Amino acid sequence: MNVTEALKTRISCRAFLDRPVPEATVRAILDGAKWSPSGGNLQPWHVHVVTGARLAEFLALIAEKQKTTPFGEGSEYDIYPKDLKEPYKSRRFKCGEDMYATLGIAREDKAGRLMQFARNFRAFDAPVALFFAIDRQMGIDQWADLGMFTQSVMLMAREHGLHTCAQEAWAIWPKTIAEFLNMPPELMLFCGMGLGFMDETAPINRLRTDRAPMEEWASFSGF
Q: Which residue, 40, 62, 124, 166, is most buried by CB atoms nearer than 10 A?
């Protein structure tokens, strides 16, 4: 699979098969992603990989906490900017509407939407969950590096015939995740990611989000 194919076939997979991923495959994905660029070669990424009984234990812990704290502990950063302006606001809105449409969940069906949102915290049944973190000393530039590394993981997964779902939703459980994973206090959680084999029959996996035409975001001069 070439890079173009990997980019075009990468989606946010929200339904995975109950099929384990070999440890060797996960290691190969991360070993390939380590070649991502970073300013000064700081390589500011940290990854915790969880699967099997340990993942089941973690998800059960989150499910129990959701009974009393359904919206988590609060993220340590703003997942989206406050007062999001156009065209970003409309893009986010349409993405959500298109996603729920694949499931037949109407906008007024608050319960249905909450149930679907809660599936984030089952990692959409992915057999492997990855949690990405960064040292609190790092700044905006290094967060960009972490983002590039995260995408590299997703593209490497496609090379291995797997799919992913990057989940910033996990950012609302920073204390529980840090405690469960024995994450040192100098690290800040960025996001989680489900990794596994996509359920091709799941309607939600038919979603393909739009991309704005190049004319909206690129300018050329000197050609």
A: 124
* pTM exceeds 0.85 for this model: yes
DSSP readout, 61-104?
Answer: HHHHHHTT-TT-S--SS-SS-TT--TTHHHHHHHHHHHHHHHTT
Residue 135 exposed, middle or buried by CB count within 10 Å (0-12, 13-18, 19+): middle
Task: Judge whether 121 and 128 are in contact, CB under 8 Å.
Answer: no
Cα distance between residue 17 and residue 66, in whole Å: 24
Residue with tokens 């109950």: 18
What is the chain's pLDDT, residue by residue, as a tens digit (223 residues)? 999 999 999 999 999 999 999 999 999 999 999 999 999 999 999 999 999 999 999 999 999 999 999 889 999 999 999 999 999 999 999 999 999 999 988 888 888 888 888 899 999 999 999 999 999 999 999 999 999 999 999 999 999 999 999 999 999 999 999 999 999 999 999 999 999 999 999 999 999 999 999 999 999 999 9
Question: Could you tell me which residues are beta bridge partners of residue 188?
Answer: 134
State the Cα–Cα distance between residues 12 and 194, nearest whole angstrom: 9
Q: Residue 134's CB: how many other CB atoms inside 10 A?
A: 20
Dihedral sign computed on CA atoms, order 149, 203, 123, 51? negative
* DSSP run (H or E) holding 28: helix 23-33
Domains plus CATH for the chain? 3-78+121-207 (3.40.109.10)
